[in-house]
Amino acid sequence: DITGANAAAEANEGGNRKVSTELIAREVKRRRTFGIISHPDAGKTTLTEKLLLFSGAIQLAGTVKARKSGRHATSDWMEIEKQRGISVASSVMQFEYRDHVVNLLDTPGHQDFSEDTYRVLTAVDSALMVIDAAKGVEEQTIKLLNVCRMRNTPIITFMNKMDRETRDPLELLDELESVLKIQCAPVTWPIGMGKNFRGVYHLLRDEIMLFKAGEERADGNVEIIKGIDNPKLVEMFPLEIEQLKMEVELVHGASHPFNLDDFLAGIQTPVFFGSAINNFGVREILNALLDWAPAPGGRDATVRSVTPTEEPFSGFVFKIQANMDPAHRDRIAFLRVCSGRFERGMKLKHLRLNRDIKVSSVVTFMASSREQVEEAYAGDIIGLPNHGNMQIGDSFSEGEMLQFTGIPYFAPDFFRVARIRNPLKIKQLHKGLQQLGEEGAVQVFKPVTGSDLILGAVGVLQFEVVASRLLNEYGVDAVFEGTSISSARWITCDDKKKLADFEKSSAGANLAVDAAGNLAYLASSGVNLRLTQERWPEVVFHATREHA
Ligand code: G4P
């Protein structure tokens, strides 16, 4: 009976589907994907290392730091990373803790602060903001927080370096609220600082965690005293306890109580005080990530929203990294899984090229090494090796035409004119810049008048990276000279005639075309930009643009 057999097969298939849906839901629920936002030197590397140590992902303190100290010069660190083969792996660190799978995405700072840093934040579900308590809110933190705000990403705050002389904690919270425009809900409160740092009081649990300096306690166990009115405290800290009680009263009265919904909406940030280098307060951060930070959520695509638990696989590329071997222009595309289950060897549709690709040599990222991936779920990052046919923003699925949105290019803050010493190399220059542009290393603008090539980046040291890669990989000796350009905005206008008028006006001389063919306005100053915007109200000036 053919119909019966079909029905049985279908029922069976239905059964498998159910098992698989449940499996996917379970795996999604236990995942957390986050990035760290901080200003250089606030302690991101130290904290990353401690998080990995606590989870048992690495055994040795100094592993992550060793990598960072290799970053003096671009060529140096490329050499070092090549030897160790850890560069790619360390961009994404996956580890397990308390039956959760945590993906920590590196947000490059210092030398390699670039658009990548921004774009990584479009691939996370939450962020950890690390602040040097002696310095407070710094420039890079503000920039990164603004990127988080584009998607209302929930943020957990860690006030680091309490073992040093810091600023007044209340003043720090005040600054966070006024500069970053985010409500602060202190969860722990410091008792003293610097040499007199005694520990923190947990406002929700009414208990005191005693501080002990030293790095050796990798488990983060601390002595706990229950209750702020515990007589033991007066004995131990006769000087500090009155001050603490006063501050706690103030904090209860003046600050916001922690509210999970506000945190998830990106309106409020829970604040923890500690000292990363002393392993103090780190476990509270890990627990907050697991208990409060969201599991992977839905993602918008052009045609519809995608739920992480739906069965068909989908994902998007948010970062391209050149492979370390300059002889082969291999690249690894970092793909964030948005739904379904990825299995090694499965066929994926590359939607921009409308072509099926078989991905057999995909890599996953464990904290300590680079491994072959067997399966991945929403929130996970997988690495797809390719020869240049994958770009930032590309979407992949099992067949459905879904272009994910919200993977922007950011208007650069720094500009250079590219010139070459040997004019015969002009073709190589264009090719090199095109490819480096696709990797997101730099943006290239061609002014509508003249023959110069303008390079734009969000981090100034990015130009050095590009110059050294042009030389080493493309044999092009280029110099980058200063320009009078101070900012760029992408231009759109619904009114074709107005746009034509704009192009013909004196402002039209400042127009350029980017590598993807989009029109951009290159302004000589903030004032110039503002005046031009005022004069042309029908023209829209965008600080970001979406993948073409
Ligand atoms: P980053 O990745 O955000 O740039 O910061 P990183 O972790 O490298 O930390 C920057 C400096 O701050 C380092 O000192 C680090 O040891 C120190 N640091 C981190 N956490 C704490 C803390 O809780 N208390 C104190 N007192 N210092 C902390 P460095 O001298 O620049 O480097 P190193 O020679 O110690 O490695």
With strands numbered from the N-terminus, the spatial order across the biggest sheet is 28-25-27-26-30-31-29-32
Please work out how many helical segments DSSP would assign.
16
Strand % is 25-35%
How does the helix and strand content classify structurally?
alpha+beta
Low-confidence stretches: 70-89
Q: Rg from C-alpha positions?
A: 26 Å
N- to C-terminal separation? Answer: 52 Å
Structural overview:
It is globular, with a radius of gyration of 26 Å. Strand 8 and strand 9 form a beta hairpin. The protein has 548 residues and is an alpha+beta fold. The model is unreliable at 70-89 (pLDDT under 50). Helix content is 32%, strand content 28%. An 8-stranded antiparallel beta sheet has the order 28-25-27-26-30-31-29-32. Strands 2-3-1-4-5-11-6 form a 7-stranded mixed beta sheet, with helices on both faces. It has a 6-stranded antiparallel beta sheet with strand order 18-17-23-14-15-22. The relative contact order is 0.11. The chain has 16 helices and 33 strands. It binds guanosine-5',3'-tetraphosphate (G4P). Guanosine-5',3'-tetraphosphate binds at residues 38, 40-46, 65, 160-161, 163-164, 275-278. Guanosine-5',3'-tetraphosphate is lined by residues 38, 40-46, 65, 160-161, 163-164, 275-278.
